[in-house]
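Ligand-bound model needed. acetyl coenzyme *A.
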Amino acid sequence: MSPTTKPKFKNPRAKYNFQGRTCSIAGVGSYVPHKILTNADLEKMVNTSDEWITTRTGIKERHIAAKDEFTSDLGAKAALRAMQTAGITADEIDLIIVATITPDMPFPSTAALVQRKLGAHRAAAFDLEAACSGFIYALEVAQQFIMSRTYDTVLVIGAEKLSSIVDWQDRNTCVLFGDGAGAAILRNRPNAHGLLTAVMGADGRKANLLFMAGGGSRCPASAQSVDARMHYLRMEGKETFKSAVQAMQTAATEALRRCEIDISRIKLIVPHQANLRIIEAVGKRLGAQPEQLFVNLHKYGNTSAASVAIALDEAVRSGRVQSGDLLLLVVFGAGLTWGAAVIEW
Ligand code: ACO
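Prediction:
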């Protein structure tokens, strides 16, 4: 199929059983650091309140990594749990993709550092940057490698230490984010359940809504960039909110259309966990029932690329997902970027 051809599936399984190959999710896992920062803790740090944070976002607490705990550590721990669930060893992994906006360092990739920690020496490794949409972007990339017969087993990780780029003096942003990681093992398993479709999108014209200006080639680190607090993320909250609702609705609708699946057939919608009001607005626009929405942001805040991966792992472990259930993952992030995926579990 040419890349411009729009796929059309009478049978939603048509794509993932393409030529006898299936991109199935063999195991998921997640990890969050031990330290918890509550809204009450934040009240002592900036001019905010538990009441404001809870009513505007739904967030009650978030996990914060230790000084000597990095994105690759969180990612490797989540990966080990996913490998355990999938029942595979490190030497079976062909490729590692780490979705992150908080790599351990600009290079080498965090994926290479995870590869070393896991001892997955056969695996190719690279990072993927699509902000909060990174996990779904990475699922789609992994699926392409599997369906094209390049690789059989891909480890996809969403991992973030956002506490390292949050400005703890900026109440507009510091209450929103947390650290953590989630992972999935994707494998070719003929005629199994799996990833039906993944949709990705971006609009660089809105890059100014959410960004970190310092540390790249445009503004390398300097005494001035540090003084100007350019190594922290900045966000236009209201505009980001509006774009998030619109983009998530568009992505989810397109993913469902491609699979010819009605929203009523989706057992669980696992959305990016940024703001409860965003999740509820998207659910309403999609015509979903409240019980179809998976929410865990009250415990973790927004963990960017890790968010939907942690949520998926929790949904599975808590028994909300059974074999054969249809899931809709939907995300939104800086870039702007967005994405959605439909999975038959
Ligand atoms: N505590 C108390 N007051 C606050 C706080 C705080 N933590 N933060 C902001 N305020 C104040 C502001 O100063 C402002 O006051 P003013 O009106 O006197 O100027 C007021 O609250 C802002 O109110 P609103 O703009 O109406 O707040 P809103 O309802 O839009 O909520 C929020 C703000 C939570 C940031 C919301 O806009 C939002 O969630 N936006 C989307 C964020 C998001 O999803 N980001 C992630 C993208 S994914 C990625 O790639 C990382």
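The two ends are 25 Å apart (CA to CA).
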